Amino acid sequence: MEKIEVKGIVRKGGKKGVSRKLRAAGNLPVVCYGRGIDTLAATINPNDLLKALSTEYGPNIVFTLVLDDNGTEIRRDVMVKCVQRDPLSRRILHADFYTIDADRKVTVRVPLRLDGKAVGVGLGGKLRSAARDVVVSCLPKDIPTEVVFDVTPMNLKDRAQISAVPRPNGCEFIYSSDFLVAEIIPPRAN
Asked: Which of 145, 149, 156, 176 could form a disulfide with 120 if both were Cys (CB 3.0 to 4.6 A apart)?
């Protein structure tokens, strides 16, 4: 994972009027918090956040938030916890960042991609994807961009559960029941 830095300025106070003025000036109000540290209110350039979110990691990106507090530099490795968007324009209005610890596992939602051409599809069946993403627990450095499941050996009427999906290195899947991720639906009899 490449190291991305997003620069900003610590802000004091934080009523609605202040946030509106910041947005009108082209800035984005954000809050940064975490376990055992002080919560910081700050402003950043919204384009810097969009650039970070447009990487292959998407909302699971870990980046360094560099804040200027009256000449003192504050650096925190963070992940996006929440992004508030305007319902019509989809413009980002506010973001919450969570400070992470490199030695502590995080839980993230990662896209699931089905790869290959199933044997059952060659016999006239249809591949049905039953899950778009999976929840993964891992260290921040091990966050995968996607989880890939090879469906090539699947035949007609075969079903694949999450327990059959190979886990990326350093990751474990979080689920309460062994849910369906893909199945081959046989062709209809005429």
From this structure: 156
